[in-house]
Every structure is written in C-alpha cells, then in structure tokens.
Design a protein that fits this description.
This is TerB family tellurite resistance protein. Residues 20-57 form the Co-chaperone DjlA N-terminal domain. InterPro entries: DjlA_N, TerB-like. The protein has 142 residues and is mainly α. 70% of the residues lie in helices and 0% in strands. It contains seven helices and no strands. Helix 4 (72-87) packs across helix 6 (114-126) and helix 6 (114-126) packs antiparallel against helix 7 (131-141). The protein starts with a helix and ends with a helix. Residues 1-7 have low confidence and may be disordered.
Length: 142
C-alpha cells in the first residue's frame, strides 16, 4: 500500500466516522425528519460515502462510535469538522442549531456551555476561519 493510499484510507475512515456521528445524533429521537434525511443524503455525497457505506451506516451507526476526545482542544477540532459539515449551506434551517447542540453534547461539551459553544462555533464557521483560528478562538471561550 502506497503512502497516498494510506492517507486516502485514513481520510475516508475519518469521514465515515464523522458521518456516522451525525447519523447517530440525528437518530437520537428514533427517526429522521425529512430535512435531516435530505441533509444526510447530500452530506454522504460530499464526504464520498459510497451508497453501500451509506446504507451500512444508516443500518448500524454504532459501528463508528463518536468517541469524544479527552482533551478540550481535540473536542474543539472535532467540532470544527462537524460544524462545517452541518453548516455547509444552511440546508437544515432551524434544525441546524438543534443538531449541532446534540453533536456538542455528544462530543463532551457540558449542558451549561453547549449553547454558547455552538453559537460561537457557528459565527466562526460563517466567517470561514481556518482550523487554527477556530481552535484559538474557541479555546478562549470554552
């Protein structure tokens, strides 16, 4: 296996993990709202999740556990990835904040600060900041 194949493989695994985390959060109430399902369909394409992988993840999203990072900086980095995915084009409308709040709690942010964290994350994602800026700004306030 070449180095580029290894990188591609790790990138795809990470994408599947992120996608699975979003599916798990969206399924927390036992079903998808129509806008959530449409968003997942679109997100799977963007993340290069194959139709077979998509079906497998929907059937068993626990196969790729969320595994909240232990360190706060790693949580913020994961939030950056997931917030950009959910926010990609405001496809979810009002459900976007609810989904991100659920993701924030699943990542290990506390109920006391998750609303603030998500609001700040969305402002930074709207501003299209890079990862370093996002982490720096979020670490000041988390």
């Amino acid at each position: 296996m070449s180095f580029s194949d290894l990188f591609d493989s790790e990138f795809k695994q990470r994408n599947k993990g992120h996608f699975s985390a979003i599916v798990r959060v969206a399924l927390a109430d036992g079903k998808f709202a129509p806008e959530e399902k449409a968003f997942l369909d679109k997100l799977a394409l963007r993340l290069e999740i194959s139709p077979a992988e998509y079906a497998e993840i929907l059937e068993n999203p626990l196969k790729y556990p969320i595994n909240p990072p232990y360190l706060q900086e790693q949580r913020v980095e994961r939030l950056f990835d997931l917030a950009r995915m959910v926010h990609v084009d405001h496809h979810l409308g009002d459900a976007q904040d609810l989904l991100l709040r659920k993701i924030g709690l699943a990542l290990g942010f506390t109920p006391e600060n998750v609303d603030y964290i998500i609001e700040k994350a969305m402002i930074l994602v709207d501003e299209k900041v890079d990862l370093d800026t996002f982490v720096s700004e979020m670490m000041k306030h988390s």
